[in-house]
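Per reviewer request, we include the raw input and output of the structure prediction for the construct analysed in the revised manuscript.
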Amino acid sequence: MGDSQEERELMGRRSFGVVLLTVVLLTGSVEGIAVPPPPPLPRTILAATRPVGELIVELESHSFARRQRATRELYRSGAAAAPLLGRAARGDKLEVAARAIGVLERMYTARDLDVVASSESVLEGLAETGPRSVSRRARKVLESHTDLRQRRAVEQVRRLGGIFKDAQDNVVDPNNSRMIGHPIVTLQLGKGWKGGGQGLKFVRRLTRLRSLLIIDGADTSDEQLASLTAAVPMLMVVRRGRALLGVKSFSMPCQIQEVRPGLAAHRAGVKVGDVVQKFDGKPISDFQQLVDLIKSHRPGDKVILTVSRTVDGQKKIVTLKVTLDSWEAASRVTKKKK
């Protein structure tokens, strides 16, 4: 008994639907027919539920799916996973090492600063002392994120109390879009520095930094600074006392080249071109001698500054009373100007 006309039309529509579905699955579209996109994948990332040690063991699993799952869970394990990943990267299993460094790199580009800090520290250790192939890969990871590395180091240093300055001693933010890519002239560490010797690891990451100004009272030791300069030999380290006069000078004789507005020398009436003869009654022959004498004083000390000044073609000796500033006060003056 033959099919009715209605049944034949229904079967035809079903056949067309199967063909259409097949074409859609293969090509993603049909000419003249709008095909909606597939539903988005869920964005929620669930936290790892297994111990980190167990996940690292699974990186050696014979099952590719289990290795992949362990890799994803390790990334979600957070900062605590970084040291164990570093240890795994030093092992003799090449795939385990590659996966461990891959997870560390992904952690390094995360938004969580604790995760970033832990992974960066481990990558630095691998770059310095890891097996040759692992060391090379770790260095490559760090070098491929140089700009990110610099920005985060600047953030950490500022958070710990470091003060960045330009050539005119103005306080600046090296992460400002106008400064990115330009050298960082000076980083000042004074009594407000909360990073201690450990915080100097962030200074080591500032490859654009030219000079480091250490003010008496900064929480750093000579040994820690020596380690820093050994690691960054091109970095110029300058030491100063807590008191500040607020001038720049040619070396010999000690002729004033610049007087910073609002600071001790400016308030006392020091002028560009003055030649310093005496400071607190002691003769001055060059700028370093002046710097050394200022080191022996504290902010707020009142001292007599004797200068020679040319007025109407005649040289005169001028005696000025100066109340010394602090470096922190100088930073506040700069911020007010801005």
